Amino acid sequence: MPNHSHITEFAGLPVVEFASWEAIHNDFDRAMRRARTIGRHDGEYPRTYQELFEGVGDPGSVAWRLRMEPPLYGENHSGHRVPVESAAGYIGRFTDLVRPAEVRALVVGQFPDEDFQMRAEEVAGALSEIAPRLANLRSLFFAEILQEESDISWIQLCDLAPLLKALPRLRRFTVRGSGELSLHVPEHRGLRELTVQSGGLPGRLSREIASSGLPALEHLELWLGVEDYGGDTVPADLAPLLSGAAFPQLRHLGLRNAEGIDAWVPVLAEAPVLERLEVLDLSLGDLTDEGAQALVDHAGAFSHLKRLDLHHHYLSEEAREGVRAALPGVEVDLSDPHEPEEYDGELHRYTAVSE
Predict the structure, then answer these.
(1) Cα gap 269→337, rounded to integer Å
(2) Preceding amide of 59 cis, omega within 30
């Protein structure tokens, strides 16, 4: 699953984590406890920090992961756990040790509060404050939170439009989670790629995105998710996008991880925006033979595409062959087929990521 492990590359750069004191403390504590247990250093802990040191020496050669761990050790007089450093202190230490003007890409992971919820507003505010020093930042992934840290549908965020406004040179922005997320950007003339990963994309949020002023946007990826987790986006919510009016430079559209993706196929076939797309990504959803037949029936509308991504689907072999035959000039990804699961006599199909 996309949210089961940390990404190792972002914006074409290897990802290196700027270790928090909490992480270093836990790492060495684990190493010493392990040595006590087995009577020697086993070599696995502490981990090597060579990549970190090399990155500090050449900040633009890597994508920096900013991430904190919850405090596990240290107690104050009341018995509550005490963090070794605050989020502001951690980000401040990053800008002191890593020349911020050379940073090209950031991956912001979990910054847990005492309830293990993402301190989104605090972190976004801290990044906005240092934004003037991030003159070469072009790519940002906000809330790269793994499922073991929080289910995607429970990630609570905030209004991130002010952060984008503070970074006018940003070209690529990815965010994971949609709880409390707001993203209406009146104008950002530099952004070329926007990805919103969610287990359920609210129609409200879809309308905010579709009505944003992003004249340079070439790549848009929305994870629509499932209705049980807030995914109530319908075609009307994306009307400015589908009409082609919203983003004149759009060439890559992803409506991914979508429950009921079958119903979107005829909508897309009739949408003016389709004519200028080179890539259409409907992967990670619950596409069935019904959706495949719609692709075949409207093959003329999709035949100009360079690539059609349908991986993670519920198509029969016959339906797969039908799609390939109907779109001979299109690179079609039909990998990762799934079988529906039967419960109480009913068939159930699932998106790749939901809760």
Answers:
(1) 23
(2) no
CATH code, domain with 222: 3.80.10.10
Quickly count: other Cβ atoms within 10 Å of residue 341's Cβ. Answer: 10
Percent of the chain with pLDDT over 90: 84
Residue 2 lies in a domain: no
- Give the position of tokens 């609570």: 156
Instruction: Give the total number of structural domains in the chain.
Output: 2
Distance separating alpha carbons of residues 250 and 328, to the nearest angstrom: 24
Does residue 105 share a domain with residue 239? no
What is the distance between the alpha carbons of residues 126 and 158, in angstroms, rounded to a whole number?
13
Contact 106, 64 (CB under 8 A): yes
In the predicted structure, residue 306 carries a pLDDT above the cut 90: yes
- Can you give the residue range of the structural domain that contains 82? 8-142
Per the DSSP assignment, residues forming a β-bridge with 260 are none
Shared domain check, 235 and 341: yes
- At 72 the pLDDT is 58
Contact present, 352 and 312 (Cβ < 8 Å):
yes
Amino acid in the structure at residue 106: L
- For residue 3, being part of any structural domain is answered with no
- Is the full-model pTM beyond 0.85? yes
